[in-house]
Amino acid sequence: MYDKKLPLLSVTLCIFAAVLSSPAQAQHADNDYDYRERTRELAFDPQRFFPEGTRPWMEIIYSGDDYGFPVYSIAIQKGCTSDDTGEARRNCGNRLIARMVRAPFDGEPLRPRNRGQVLFGYLFDEGVGDDLALRDALARYQLEWLETDVSGCEPAMALLEADPVLSFFATQLTPSEGIPQLALHADKIRFVHRGSYLSETTYYGWAAPESPGEWAVQFAQSLEACWRPASSIAPWERD
């Protein structure tokens, strides 16, 4: 398994050295395949987490820095899934099934973005040039593919019940007073909530205090003790 325990400086130097090496540089220069974007699409797109193809009730995508290093993505679907068959469909209507893909890391990273930096460094070194090679490389890298029923996760339910209408999505229409907060090269959160098939609310930005982004990060953290390995097919292994 690829060594994921690298300090940020070492990761940066390794990637920089790889770019400067002529064989690797030539290999990627002759190929227009964007392994970074395809990794986001195949592995970290929450709409691929449930094979039935329905849009999730909630999506959270955490990406690092301005380069969009993939850290984790979460999708939550209400009710039954395609994995529920036979008798299982009798009692699945009230569930909130959450699934997450996360870039693994050996130990605790200095910053969340380090997960995605090491992942992209590995894929660059592998020289992936098409989807087949990318899927194979991601399988060897052993991305975390996890699942839980949110309705049985007490910390997560406490957050949902504390603000059941997600009131923080309210938008201030008048200009605020004072100097606006600045966040240079901040990690980004994309948070989508679908109240029904006719309504969708999206936040994209940094985890500013009292913002939907901050709540999304807190909600993801509240699920940490409840995850278990997912039994369904991982998104990067599906067509």
UniProtKB/TrEMBL annotation:
Q: Which residues form the signal peptide?
A: 1-26
Q: Which domain of life is it from?
A: Bacteria
Keywords recorded for this protein, A-Z: Signal
Protein name as annotated: TonB C-terminal domain-containing protein
